[in-house]
Amino acid sequence: MGAGSSSIAAAEEGGCSSPSKMMVVGLGDMPESCVASVLVYLDPPEICKLARLNQAFRGASSADFIWESKLPSNYKYLMEKIFGQVPANLSMKEIYAKLCRPNRFGDGTKEIWLDKRTAQLCMSISAKALTITGIDDRRYWKHLPTEESRFNSIAYLQQIWWFEVDGEVELCFPAGTYSLFYRIQLGRAAKRFGRRVCNPEHIHGWDLKPVRFQLQTSDGQHAMSQCYLDEPGNWVNYHVGDFVVENPNTPTKIKFSVTQIDCTHTKGGLCLDSVLIYPSDLRDRLKR
């Protein structure tokens, strides 16, 4: 179905057609209902691109049944979780657009959004929403402002013996398989003469023993991994594990942690930004 017009010949009396009686029909003459029945099979970015073709496609692209088919089955729950209610005057397309934007909840320390192409749920949890051992003692940890975090703040570890960061979240996740990551950087980034540089001061102890990542869910799923922290100066998304949600209408509670509690040595020079929860089939979009 191209943008070029197709033509049909109007039948003459006696069943003969005449070039002079040809009626040219373009895409703009297609009924919106026919266009919408095709658009429903396309991805949202493709629908929005075709909406620019003409008035018929623009009108068809706003059909509620198209966008409701793209939304998660529990979209009403997500709207209530974020906004407190589902506004009655919003179209399905407007609801889709709202849920695709980063939306804060939980005192502004958690953020959820839908992937624009697949409508799968993504979540980010700020370091301020996590339980960090020693966070109230400025000899060990402190919160620093930064433009490198979507929450504009990170937790910076100078030095500690017992490294432990725990967290939990409870949500009705849309059905699917999810991966959980800690976003961590060794070294403290800064700008010098307009260029990003990393201050390696305080980095020590991470090459002696690996850190351990764990997660468990309220329905009995468990995952554990461990690795050495590396790549100073780069934000790394360390994969903790995966979990599966089968019922989108039942809340799933996830508990997660990262620890390095060998007290034979200190460790420090670490920036903790957030915890990310991503659909597993989209995890390649995250840089390690």
From TrEMBL:
InterPro entries: F-box-like_dom_sf, F-box_dom, PP2-like. It comes from Papaver somniferum. Signal peptide: none annotated. Residues 24-70 form the F-box domain. This is F-box domain-containing protein. It holds the Pfam family PP2.
